[in-house]
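ingest -> validate -> predict -> emit
validate: passed (alphabet ok, no gaps, 206 aa)
predict: started
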Amino acid sequence: MTKSDKKTTYHHGDLRESLLLAAHSIILDAGIDGLSLRKLAEQVGVSRTAPYHHFKDKNELLCAIAEDGFVQMGQITSAIFLDSRLSKGDRYRGYIHAYIDFAASNPEIYDLMFGRTIWQQNQVTSKLQDTAYNSFQSQLHQVKELQKDHILPPDENSLRFAQVSWGTLHGIARLVIDGIYADTSHIDEMCECAANLFLNNENHTQ
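emit:
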């Protein structure tokens, strides 16, 4: 790529997206420790200073990757909850399977979304914090709506139910990511078990 090409790419407005895609690739190959803004610039084919126009440091880049993960997962699960071809109970089942599938298919990204690399180091950007908060609020909203229809137990506190159900899915996701359960049949069975536990027993098919 020539210097002229680099300038055009930067001003075209898609450099940020290109950097994020390249960062995903580097993390898959070398893990988070293998990612640096310099290596990222080399892979995309831009000057070493170009990434700093979009990310002030590595932490801000990691937060942006995690933010993208929340957005992608939200798009997937929202599509399921809006699928009118499915019963409301099956939408919730689909949500559980989709959540675990996303985590299993994107372990490095999932680790950034929920792991200690960002959160326990108190290095969360306000944008990531807002995105993560909105993600949970969306889940809480779905719980309340399904409780109104008695698809989920209506007498449970909505916030606590959302927290416990998410905690369960997160636990399954961690078992899968850590390699404790790698057999697809086991994963599917655990998802179905979770769905059966959470769904109101009398209304599984509504």
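Residues 158 and 186 are 29 Å apart (CA to CA).
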